[in-house]
Design a protein that fits this description.
single chain; two-stranded antiparallel ribbon; 39% helix; 468 residues; Amidase signature (AS) enzymes
């Protein structure tokens, strides 16, 4: 087992640290060896802290020897997405101006992880400003998918999912503003939770480019591991008042008792879906039916038409505001982002208020929807992974699509503030991973995790490892 410690789940590591059959320092050394072996082909981890990582592993080993771990995370390796602030590492956000950017503080969730003894192995790669569905930037370059390094792991959490899928570390803290946890999780064959809005409170953050849509959450290889990280870092903080509402909603999260009412939405309108994804998600739905849940197929009874124009405008307005505050960032940004900001400056303030009103209406309609159902099931992504240097697939199932064609299933969930759990299902014929998502009412994160664990028990995936 010595040369395979990097394959152990976080829950297994926790158990073995507790019984003394394994030490954090042994695991940390195995993770460094795995990083050295696979990262040159993937470019998943772009900032390393090997010496501090190993020194902290020694301290965690001593704590476990005394029977005094700081938390369930003590001694477990973890990575942090390079869009989240870290006190001892730069946060480049994939853009030239921030190559050495370091505020000297941790994002709140990162601080909680450190305080709990988690071992941060490094920062994972992102697209510039974390605004794309693939992972490439002018600072660190392109990230490859462990299942096929010439293809993308998606974005913007591409480095994070590649690190977890390849065994560099069993856990990752990632970010999801429009699907950036769930789509990459599906492309890499792992688990990703986009929590309810503010279930993990935010403090010490980069500028928000997507209103309040951007949340942070866990990536892992198993649902139990995702739950371990989620539970360790959740909970309200007065600095983020919306986290108080999230905690109140979570207190009403209902336990799984009996069959759940599930709405299966295979497609959104006439938007194309890769047929292999449709077939695989259909199998997952059959598995859920076999577990006794009441599944009804149908359309999504929410009005998402406003998103066609609003989604790109939200990012344009966000960039314009940020660049006005940081003109040096704009000067060094790639041309496409300067062009987006220029478009944002042409939009009237009334347009932003109109979008905010539409988002508020969506949240109200979503709350009403979950009075009649317990869950929604839909694909995580509309396309299989595409070439790693291309921003998006230009065709899906033979039909031409634009930049968000592959991403249509996820952004509305962020706008609605809902929790969503991405799970692997049966791979494509060529072995590439496929995933689907369970979407619940606001605050029902535990419900999703419990159902995810039961689905995983019926259709396990943890022993699928990429050939890298």
């Amino acid at each position: 087992m010595g040369d395979r410690l990097w394959q152990l789940s976080a829950c297994e590591l926790q158990r073995r640290f507790r019984d003394g059959s394994l030490t954090p320092i042994a695991v940390a050394k195995a993770c460094i060896e795995r990083l050295e072996a696979v990262n040159p082909r993937l470019n998943a981890v772009v900032v390393r802290r090997d010496q501090a990582f190993l020194e902290e592993a020694e301290l965690a080993t001593a704590r476990h020897a005394r029977g005094q771990p700081l938390s369930p995370l003590d001694g477990i390796p973890i990575s942090v997405k390079d869009s989240l602030l870290t006190a001892d590492m730069p946060t480049s956000w994939g853009t030239r101006a921030l190559r050495e950017h370091n505020t000297g503080v941790d994002e709140l969730a990162v601080a909680r992880a450190r305080a709990g003894g988690a071992l941060i192995i490094g920062k994972t790669n992102v697209p510039e400003f974390a605004l794309e569905g693939y992972t490439d930037n002018p600072v660190y370059g392109v990230t490859g998918n462990p299942w096929a390094p010439e293809l993308t792991p998606g974005g913007s959490s591409g480095g994070a999912v590649a690190a977890v899928a390849a065994g560099i570390a069993p856990l990752a803290i990632a970010q999801d503003g429009g699907g950036s946890i769930r789509r990459p999780a599906s492309h890499a064959g792992i688990v990703g939770l986009k929590p309810s809005l503010s279930a993990w409170p935010r403090q010490h953050v980069l500028p928000s480019l997507l209103l309040d849509f951007e949340v942070i959450g866990p990536l892992a290889r198993t649902v139990a591991d995702a739950r371990l990280l989620f539970d360790a870092l959740r909970g309200p903080a007065p600095v983020d008042r919306s986290s108080l509402a999230a905690a109140q909603a979570a207190s009403r999260d209902h336990a799984v008792s009996g069959p759940q009412r599930i709405l299966y939405v295979e497609r959104l309108g006439n938007a194309p879906l890769d047929p292999q994804i449709a077939a695989s998600v259909g199998q997952a739905v059959d598995t859920l039916s076999g577990l006794g849940h009441r599944v009804e197929a149908g359309g999504l009874p929410l009005d998402l038409d406003f998103f066609v124009d609003a989604w790109p405008q939200i990012g344009q307005i966000g960039l314009a505001r940020m660049f006005d505050a940081h003109p040096d960032w704009e000067q060094q940004a790639s041309p496409k982002y300067r062009e987006m900001a220029a478009a944002g400056r042409q939009l009237p303030a009334t347009r932003l208020l109109q979008i905010i009103e539409q988002v508020t209406q969506l949240r109200r309609a979503s709350a009403t929807l979950f009075n009649d159902i317990d869950l929604i099931v839909m694909p995580s992504a509309a396309a299989l992974p595409w070439p790693a240097t291309e921003a998006f697939p230009s065709r899906i199932d033979g039909q031409p699509v634009g930049p968000r064609g592959h991403a249509i299933y996820t952004g509305w969930v962020n706008a609605a503030g809902l929790p969503s759990l991405a799970l692997p299902t049966m791979p494509a014929g060529n072995g590439l991973p496929i995933g689907f998502q369970l979407i619940g009412g606001y605050g029902n994160d535990n419900l999703l995790l419990t159902l995810g664990e039961r689905f995983e028990a019926a259709a396990p995936w943890a022993q699928r490892w990429p050939p890298i």
